[in-house]
Specification:
Elements (H helix, E strand, L loop, with lengths): L12 H9 L6 E5 L2 E19 L4 E4 L25 E11 L2 E3 L2 E3 L3 E8 L7 E4 L18 E3 L3 E6 L3 H17 L8 E3 L4 E6 L4 E7 L2 E3 L2 E4 L5 E7 L7 H8 L3
Antiparallel strand pairs: 1-2, 2-4, 3-10, 4-7, 5-6, 7-16, 8-15, 9-14, 10-13, 11-12, 12-13, 15-16
């Protein structure tokens, strides 16, 4: 008997299809919202970096100070309820392209479609929504979706034990802007600035940012036995692909 998620956390048919397809090179995910004649395809799945999670506690949230916080404090950070074995894990990005023309110029429409923290290489058998340590499952009904809000269009995977240190460069950057002392963001840029990484060598821990928009759900991909295989977020979840999901799952 395989692992069966709580019905309140289980991904629906469309969500399961998208999560299972987003990392399949060559897969068609749908069309652009602004032009339904332009298809969105997965063109590449590539490693971005290795991420050290020595505590086994994972934060998936925006590292930037909350909007309206005049003191620019480090956000609390949404720590996932589920733990992973302490170690170093591969972060992968699925890149999509949807070529288009604008004012006589042609663009490939390349962007990050989804990101995942790979915990084990075993195949995913079921998807379920990840809870934060402060979330109350009793308050949820089947189909409810909760996650984090990325006001700065940037989120991250990070080790929770080093969160204050790892998120500090983002706070310091905004404090510099506020005081008129603008300095570059003290992070390591990855993949032509699509991602940023910070590290705490004392704790051997890392943080890596990725694009994110608005309210974002974090998904756990579990193996047949229930082991966490990957932690995934989908970028621009509602911007593309709804028609393709409907057709793929047979919904009208």
């Amino acid at each position: 008997m395989g692992y069966t998620p709580d019905v309140r956390l289980a991904a629906g048919p469309e969500e399961s299809w998208l999560l299972g397809t987003a990392f399949t090179p060559g897969a068609r995910l749908g069309t652009r919202l602004d032009d339904p004649t332009i298809a969105v395809h997965v063109v590449e799945v590539a490693e971005v970096t290795m991420l050290r999670i020595p505590s086994g506690r994972v934060i998936v949230d925006s590292p930037w100070p909350d909007e309206g916080d005049l003191q620019l404090r480090t956000p609390v950070g949404r720590e996932l309820l589920e733990r992973v074995p302490p170690g170093s894990y591969q972060v992968e990005a699925a890149w999509t392209e949807s070529p288009y023309e604008f004012m006589g110029e042609y663009f490939d429409g390349r962007e990050v479609g989804a990101v995942r923290l790979r915990i084990v290489d075993d195949p995913v058998a079921v998807w379920e929504m990840a809870l934060g340590v402060d979330d109350d499952i009793a308050a949820l009904s089947s189909g409810d979706r909760i996650g984090f809000n990325s006001e700065a269009n940037s989120a991250c995977f990070a080790d929770a034990s080093a969160w204050q240190e790892l998120a500090a460069p983002f706070r310091q950057f905004w404090k510099g802007l506020q005081s008129g002392d603008e300095q570059p963001l003290a992070t390591e840029s990855l993949c032509d600035e699509s991602f940023e990484r910070t590290s705490d060598e004392a704790l051997a821990a890392d943080l890596m940012t990725f694009p994110s928009e608005g309210e974002t759900v974090v998904w756990l991909g579990r193996t047949e036995s229930g082991t966490i295989a990957s932690i995934v977020t989908v970028v621009a979840y509602g911007r593309h692909w709804s028609e393709e999901r409907r057709l793929a799952t047979g919904r009208s």
